[in-house]
Amino acid sequence: MTDPQIVLTERVQQALANAFGSEYADADPLIRPSQFADFQANVAMSLGKRLRRAPREVAQAIADQLADFPGTVEVSGPGFLNITLDPAWITAEATEMLADPRTGIGTATPPQRIVIDYSAPNAAKEMHVGHLRTTIVGDAMARIYEHLGSTVVRQNHLGDWGTPFGMLIEHLLDIGEEAAVAQLEAGQGTEYYQAARAKFDSDESFKTRSRQRVTTLQSGDPETMRLWHVFMEATIRYFNKVYEMLGVTLTDADIAGESMYNSMLEKTCDDLEAMGVAVMSEGALCLFPPGFTGSDDKPLPLIIRKSDGGYGYASTDMAAIRYRVDDLKADRILYVVGADQALHFRMVFAAAEQAGWLPDSVSAEHVQIGMMLGKDGRRFKTRSGESVKLMELLQEAVDRAGVIIADRGYDEETKGEIAHAVGMGAVKYADLSISHDSEYVFDFDRMLNFAGNTGPYMQYATARIRSIFRRAGVEPESARGPIVLGVPAERALALHLLGFGAVVDQVAALVEPHRLSAFLFETASLFSTFYEECPVLKEGVDAETRASRLALCALTLRVLETGLELLGVPVPDRM
């Protein structure tokens, strides 16, 4: 089975080559869905000028080469090609898709090794809503690439190193390891940090101890490293609670924090300086990738070693990109990080290319994540102006979902499972249904709505199809048709479903999961029309029609469930 738009593109390109010569075989046929037919090809409009012929004449020449096409091709208006596919072709392709265990999704050719840097909370502070979007988008892309057969290397680049850890370790000693671990495991990292910071600012002896602790930490002192591990392990246990609640695929094995690169930083700087890419400027070791200037029109520096000898984000990122290319053998590296870091990553990529550490064979891409806003249009915060704790936000989503389904007659255990799935599905789908680089307003009322392009609407669509099969007394897997398209709503749904594999490929190529969300929403909308206009189990529906419509229901269910699983959105059997 093949996406109709891809089939049409290939056929029209061949027609172009036959009509006008092989040099036109790679022209874009400009095929788009049409309200007058299934699709419209507009290539004759742009090609007419190049050929010095009337567009309508060009369109007719193309149409003449499509005489054996499985459908009808008509020239319309000044030179449009209106293309309507034969229902028999759609039926055959849909039947093949139903029999395909992968539901029309192909595999990457060749498979790639893709490194995805995502989530990356700061261990010195609470995991807040700012980490939600990078975690959700990164995890969806990891799922999609793995389903396509590529090898995915997840990299959770924790902020787990640096000068703040001096005061954090000293505070741990002051309050005791047991109390510190309990506070960190409970998700009170922000409170812990604020208490340590307050002491650092007001107590000179604590400040002195903290600075000394930074020195022993950086030198690898065994006792200091033990205390650092105590702090980190407690913090990671809390992060894992958040990941488990969200249903993301990150594990401890995926942690590759800043501390991992600590031993590489000196060599990174020495090697860049030795090759002449890094130079001293005002006491700091800097990279000056070409094409970057500041407001004063002077070259913009990327500082990899500060004037005091310390290292920063640029140092770690340069070491990381080298490690990911040389050691992880990446073909493609995705950095799922906030849009405000765009300049930084452009400079890092340019500097890595300049150093020869990022060859043409490896793609490095910044997947920009837009800001989450409150209903007031400003950065999403609590009423007191603090960042919203992520776990509290997720729990509120579950609690609200529980209220919505409270009167549906489920026992407490089932109600809890459904509420969790609906709450997490609402939060994740709301994020994935918009372009990742766009800002969006976090609004529980909208995202938990059972109407519109929301997670609950998508989940309800799958649950409704499941209920059809329960009433029919058969499993979806047993519905094999044959599919017969006798009603426009059947035909529209089947034709749309054929585009599933191509959309997944497009999402993988462009790193734009919102395209899959849009496809699934259109699927659910078309199924709703089909459900209203095409009775499946009603008395009077003949056996052949019933079998056909059950098969179409089964195919729709598989597309919806597979697509939502790729996005990481849970799908409960009942709503």
Automatic annotation (TrEMBL):
<dbReference type="InterPro" id="IPR001278">
    <property type="entry name" value="Arg-tRNA-ligase"/>
</dbReference>
<protein>
    <recommendedName>
        <fullName>Arginine--tRNA ligase</fullName>
        <ecNumber>6.1.1.19</ecNumber>
    </recommendedName>
</protein>
<keyword id="KW-0067">ATP-binding</keyword>
<keyword id="KW-0648">Protein biosynthesis</keyword>
<feature type="domain" description="DALR anticodon binding">
    <location>
        <begin position="458"/>
        <end position="575"/>
    </location>
</feature>
<feature type="domain" description="Arginyl tRNA synthetase N-terminal">
    <location>
        <begin position="6"/>
        <end position="85"/>
    </location>
</feature>
<dbReference type="GO" id="GO:0016874">
    <property type="term" value="F:ligase activity"/>
</dbReference>
<dbReference type="Pfam" id="PF05746">
    <property type="entry name" value="DALR_1"/>
</dbReference>
<dbReference type="InterPro" id="IPR035684">
    <property type="entry name" value="ArgRS_core"/>
</dbReference>
<dbReference type="InterPro" id="IPR014729">
    <property type="entry name" value="Rossmann-like_a/b/a_fold"/>
</dbReference>
<dbReference type="InterPro" id="IPR005148">
    <property type="entry name" value="Arg-tRNA-synth_N"/>
</dbReference>
<comment type="similarity">
    <text>Belongs to the class-I aminoacyl-tRNA synthetase family.</text>
</comment>
<comment type="subunit">
    <text>Monomer.</text>
</comment>
<keyword id="KW-0436">Ligase</keyword>
<dbReference type="InterPro" id="IPR009080">
    <property type="entry name" value="tRNAsynth_Ia_anticodon-bd"/>
</dbReference>
<keyword id="KW-0030">Aminoacyl-tRNA synthetase</keyword>
<keyword id="KW-0963">Cytoplasm</keyword>
<dbReference type="InterPro" id="IPR036695">
    <property type="entry name" value="Arg-tRNA-synth_N_sf"/>
</dbReference>
<dbReference type="InterPro" id="IPR001412">
    <property type="entry name" value="aa-tRNA-synth_I_CS"/>
</dbReference>
<dbReference type="Pfam" id="PF00750">
    <property type="entry name" value="tRNA-synt_1d"/>
</dbReference>
<dbReference type="Pfam" id="PF03485">
    <property type="entry name" value="Arg_tRNA_synt_N"/>
</dbReference>
<dbReference type="InterPro" id="IPR008909">
    <property type="entry name" value="DALR_anticod-bd"/>
</dbReference>
<keyword id="KW-0547">Nucleotide-binding</keyword>
